[in-house]
């Protein structure tokens, strides 16, 4: 029997220390990145195309190299392993810190494999990352070498294409495909390759919902499709689902609800590209007991924090769900003002490490932010 190779926990904690305890964060050496990617690839070989996950879980949309805003997400939702996270893809490109962002997520996935889950977006592609920033950033930060880009883009070929939550919710990066009516068709795909130009795999990462149509329509993006109400109703009926959650589209308020919550878009990159001025969100799914506002085991910590009925009406979500809305981190704002494209913000501040848990220690020193927009 083959025993998968695992990096010692102490080594993973050291990687987290380098990324989390320094300003600017220290990028990991190419040899370390290679080892991390190789180890994660061996583990992902046994992961199905659609991961079966359970609530409670926090769902995160596009990050696009906005490293400091990723740290904001962990302040808001809680640091792994105290919170389960599903990331919906588009970890790199556009922002100034794609290397640090994907390095942190890979390390967290290895350190907390049952708490952190990653799926593939349209930017997890060799072609896209060559044109939208990640490739150039790697060359800049690794003295002209593209090795780290090769290690990470090879890893992208192994990422799952979607997830189900409680067997009732389907999560993917983009949307639906006219070539796919059953989840089993996605489960049967050969995902271990570059994203093709068309077909089910391409549509999953490129398609978008459109409230103006009922069926499918070619997407103005040049890949994937627009899909309407009839499409998602049929897909949910055929697969015993109640909802689809996806990312892929910039939302000024951080989220969009379509068709009374039948489809949700979660966007997690505030002030996108350091100039759009948009808010961002994390979708928190506490339970999928849609016949009741709350359950004793999954929502007891939240009973005094929000009124489920008001949230459902205001945000267009299902019971047990809410969008936790946030704005850009101060470091994001500083990058915006200075137009920086360098690694970090040149601060000497470091955070204490408590009990040897570098990740939780980083956030233990910072007050947990309370974003109250969703309370109203």
TrEMBL record:
This is Serine/threonine-protein phosphatase. Gene3D superfamilies: 3.60.21.10. GO terms for biological process: glycogen metabolic process; negative regulation of mitophagy. Belongs to the PPP phosphatase family. One of its GO terms (molecular function) is metal ion binding. The gene is PPG1. It comes from the Eukaryota. Its EC number is 3.1.3.16. Keywords: Hydrolase, Manganese, Metal-binding. One of its GO terms (cellular component) is mitochondrial outer membrane. It catalyses: O-phospho-L-seryl-[protein] + H2O = L-seryl-[protein] + phosphate; O-phospho-L-threonyl-[protein] + H2O = L-threonyl-[protein] + phosphate. SUPFAM superfamilies: Metallo-dependent phosphatases. It comes from Scheffersomyces stipitis (strain ATCC 58785 / CBS 6054 / NBRC 10063 / NRRL Y-11545). Residues 119-124 form the Serine/threonine specific protein phosphatases domain.
